[in-house]
Design brief:
- Keywords: Signal.
- This is DUF3080 domain-containing protein.
- InterPro entries: DUF3080 (IPR021431).
- The chain has 2 domains: 184 residues, no CATH class; 82 residues, no CATH class.
- Helix content is 65%, strand content 0%.
- The longest helix is centred in the last third of the chain and has 40 residues.
- The chain is rod-shaped and about 95 Å long.
């Protein structure tokens, strides 16, 4: 009940989020660049294009895990020295216990296995219950990685964090490290299974809530996709102008070249580049965590492929963003160098001109 209340409050607060100035910043930069190059109108970023990064249906990411249970009658007769074990199994067999959310089941299985480990020394070696509990514990340990993946794939919190947003990351917003820290902690839990048991539900619940409460996971995906598009469009503008109508055909600064230098100083280096650095910095930790998740055993194929599309080391949204960033820097360097206006050249003044294109 507490968890549902927290999720509901988070949903209400989400409506009061920051303005969508990340997309506005990119749009303003691209429009100024297009006008300064005297180029035709360019294609604007379409939010619908991000649908290619939609999570696969939950049924494709969810695994059927056989229920392994033990009857209470055996425990009542043979396990009077293990009241905690009796309590846990009774809870699981109750009507509420049969409706555990996947993330709650992960915590329950950890508690159950720890309790079995504590109980076994109190049972006689020739006890049939001891042998049954040992088999049960062994079988449940083998299921832990599948239970872990169901906990993630079956949770609205994990889905919310990896669902693209209508908004990009706002400019100069404070980093919400709680969600990424929670995802890293979950990845560490999954990677340690089955040798190390998962923590209890009380410890897991705040981790899942941190994912749900953060808007920045989805906003980061939208930022990466929009920047990839807009940087590639901007690079194409710069490259085509140099190829078809060089700004400085004699290798000396021209009025148009100085206008572009002003665009570079004021609107790229002074505005867009800090935003790029912010997105890149957050993206590095995000990508590393998704790669860590991707390497955990028993990951469903649909989940692995989705994480690869987002953050893989090749052919992914993350790598496309990094490639687009490098291409744009190179396009600017080529143009400014051709006019003698690049940093370190005689025409570089290092300050904004008064003219505002």
């Amino acid at each position: 009940m507490t968890r549902l209340a927290l999720l509901f409050c988070s949903f209400l607060l989400a409506g009061c989020g920051p303005a969508n100035d990340g997309l506005a910043l990119q749009r303003d930069y691209l429009e100024r660049l297009q006008r300064s190059l005297d180029a035709p109108d360019v294609s604007s970023f379409d939010n619908r294009s991000i649908s290619q990064y939609r999570l696969p249906a939950r049924r494709e990411r969810f695994s059927d895990i056989p229920e392994l249970r033990i009857g209470l009658l055996d425990l009542v007769i043979d396990a009077r020295r293990c009241p905690r074990l009796q309590q846990l199994i009774s809870q699981r067999n109750s009507s509420l216990g049969k409706q555990l959310m996947p993330s709650q089941r992960l915590g329950y299985e950890g508690d159950l296995l720890r309790t079995i480990d504590d109980c076994l020394p109190h049972l006689q070696d020739d006890s049939s219950l001891k042998a049954t509990l040992q088999r049960l514990a062994n079988d449940k340990r083998q299921q832990l990685q599948a239970v872990f993946w169901n906990a993630l794939n079956g949770s609205p919190e994990f889905e919310n964090y990896l669902r693209f947003a209508d908004q990009a990351l706002p400019v100069d917003t404070q980093e919400d490290s709680a969600a990424l820290d929670a995802l890293q902690r979950l990845a560490s839990i999954g990677a340690a299974l089955p040798a190390q048991l998962p923590p209890s539900a009380d410890e897991l619940e705040p981790l899942f809530f941190a994912l749900y409460a953060s808007e920045q996971g989805g906003q980061l995906i939208t930022s990466l996709a929009s920047l990839r598009h807009n940087l590639d469009v901007g690079s194409e503008l710069l490259e085509q102008r140099q190829q078809n109508r060089p700004l400085c055909p004699l290798g000396q600064a021209t009025p148009r070249g100085r206008i572009l230098q002003n665009i570079f100083i004021k609107f790229y280096a002074g505005s867009l580049q800090p935003y790029l650095a912010q997105v890149d910095q957050r993206g590095q930790q995000w990508q590393a965590t998704l790669l860590q998740l991707q390497r955990i055993d028993s990951i469903p194929a649909a989940t692995r492929e989705h994480l690869q599309r987002l953050a893989g080391e090749q052919d992914s949204l993350w790598q496309d963003f990094r490639t687009a960033t490098a291409r744009h820097v190179k396009a600017w360097q080529s143009l400014l160098n051709s006019c003698g206006l690049a940093p370190g050249q005689a025409g570089w003044n290092g300050a904004e001109n008064d003219e505002d294109p």
